[in-house]
Design brief:
about 0% strand; mainly alpha
């Protein structure tokens, strides 16, 4: 099975930015990721090192090592207006498609699924217990 450690160095480095880009894409703050979202992303990166699918343990251990540096650097370098930022991040994520296609299909699917959970977790960093009590089920336009 081919996974991220079987890629060349450039591709590995590129793939290790995946969680940072997804976290920044999920950010709801105008002009960059805010402290609460960044803290949620850092926490999730650490948790994923032991709670993700075992296939991804090594990937998350490596990603965690540079995650705070990567997310801070990317946040500073990306455009600060919402639309420009979104476009730039999506452009970078599209560059990952050829890299992901080099991986075993099961590994790539698990990684994509994990990134989806990243996006959901970071985008909900501002939700609170009261909101979940009042709206325990998702209501379009209110709790999503």
């Amino acid at each position: 099975m081919k996974h991220w450690s079987d890629l060349n160095e450039k591709e590995r480095k590129q793939l290790l930015l995946y969680p940072a880009y997804i976290s920044l894409l999920a950010s709801t703050a105008e002009g960059g990721i805010d402290k609460k979202e960044k803290r949620a992303a850092l926490k999730l990166t650490h948790i994923k090192t032991f709670s993700s699918d075992p296939l991804l343990f090594d990937f998350y251990k490596a990603a965690e090592h540079e995650f705070e540096h990567d997310i801070t650097k990317l946040d500073r370098e990306l455009p600060h207006n919402r639309e420009g930022r979104k476009h730039a991040i999506e452009h970078e994520l599209n560059k990952l498609d050829p890299v992901l296609r080099k991986l075993d299909m099961g590994y790539a699917l698990e990684l994509r699924s994990s990134m989806k959970s990243y996006k959901n977790y970071v985008s909900k960093a501002h939700h609170n217990i009261l909101e979940y009590f009042i709206f325990p089920l998702p209501v379009n336009g209110i709790s999503d």
